[in-house]
Write the structure tokens for this entry.
Amino acid sequence: MAALAVPTGINVLGQQGASIGIGYDRIVRKFGGGYQTNDLTGPTAGLITLRLNYGFLPANTAITVLDPENSNAVTPWGKYIWLFFKRRMADGSAFDVTYTDPATGSTDTDKFMFQDSNLTYEEIEYLLSSTGIVLEQFIPLI
């Protein structure tokens, strides 16, 4: 059974098909002849991106999660991801994600949002589908 970090969060520790990346936003001005300047426009620590690939999402109760937004009902994982995505798109809220930091090997929990506003399930066979989601670290404006 999957474990959730907080009521509106996802725990990706040890999850199959999870990858982590980091990116930096820069403004680059090229002047020709190899001359250029560049300025960092985002956080100096960069923004973390998580890619979660679910190659096996049965529609039955083989893989379940307790859905805290639905009275802790036991929910098939494929249905939970779909409902979680719809809820976050509707309310626009960032959510907690627990992951392993590659630099330290320790677990971290940060706020994330879905990078894309579309979610697609690919039907593999009857009651079995796959999907992938990309999460981008959320840093609120101060």
